Amino acid sequence: MKKRLIALLLTTALAGLTFTACGEKQTQETAKPEEKTEETTSSAAAPAPEKEMTDITLNEVAHSIFYAPMYVAIEEGYFEEENIRLDLVCGFGADKVMTAVLSGEADIGFMGSESSIYTYNEGANDYVVNFAQLTQRAGNFLVAREEMPEFSWNDLKGKTVLGGRKGGMPEMVFEFILKENGIDPASDLEINQSIDFGATAAAFSENQGDFTVEFEPGATALETEGKGYVVASLGEDSGYVPYTAYSAKQSFMDEHPETIQSFVNALQKGMDYVQSHTPEEIAKVIEPQFPESDLETITTIVTRYYDQDTWKENLIFEKSSFELLQDILESAGELEKRAPYEDLVTTTYAETAVK
Fold it and tell me: CB 288: neighbour CB atoms within 10 A?
């Protein structure tokens, strides 16, 4: 369990500085012309020019509380502090996000890093490079039709589970866990992969399947309605997995290194916030991002992710994580050859941001 740090309150000190600055400005503006000396006039500093804002289009794979640190950065104004005007677009799937980045429709993509490996192995010249990792655990939960306090993965044998898209991270992590527990995903149970992402909770509530693998808020919604119960966390049982990361084309990063650095700086501030505040405080900050959910539900979901240590303390995408990701891809039969970490990951920006 991570330590819950107490944020230091600097409001009084900052307010003092603000009033001091305003007081000095007011004195200069109200002084009578004849009282101003030549020295005062010549030494008066010209107002600093406002730094120009940079427009960035970010395409996210899904809009979920799972990505709370990013929404904290948005709601707390950290991107504006870094002179970035962010246009957040939801791609609804890693394949769509990758297409947007490669076509130039989006500057930065936020998705599972497996997409960057697939694109690289397909021979893309201007391939996509990962520069910041946000989540370090899977964000899915296994939901059953009844409470199972003594749940074991062996309980899935002979059952039907509503799974995820073949080749997608939710499904691959699920199958990885099954294999780690000695269960054959192909023969020991039936995994229904025909239902679209986001529609599995509705299908489960209509009595399809014995279990379902749910992203939030689907899992909590099923519990609230009394139609399902979370019996296992894929994030806890799969271990630390580089589930989602930020990436951009190599050419964009070469042309705009300052912009990438500013973007990562803002994200790191969001990460620092979630590391030093309670789930209740985090939920309150990101509430405007989820107008369809009440604060109690948001808090429940944030707490669930908070308790399983979902978010990294920094954004550094380490080599061990990248290799584990490729292990999972190989286990799922989705990877013909491994990609070099040095080509697809850069840690320069994240290392600078955390200093």
Answer: 10
User: How many whole angstroms separate alpha carbon 103 and alpha carbon 107?
Assistant: 9
| 50 band by pLDDT with thresholds 50, 70 and 90 | low
Summarised one tens digit per residue, pLDDT across range 6-45 is: 333 333 333 333 222 333 332 333 333 334 344 433 344 5
The set of residues, in sequence order, having a beta carbon less than 8 Å from that of 171 and lying 6+ positions away, is 163, 164, 165, 191, 193, 213, 332
Which contiguous run of DSSP H or E holds residue 327?
A: helix 319-331
Query: Is 47 contained in some domain?
Result: no
Residue 6 lies in a domain: no
Which residues 6+ apart lie within 8 Å of 311 measured at CB? 68, 69, 134, 135, 136, 271, 274, 275, 305
Pair (70, 203) in one structural domain: no
For 202, the domain range is 140-238
Domain count, the chain: 2
CB atoms near residue 229 (< 10 Å): 18
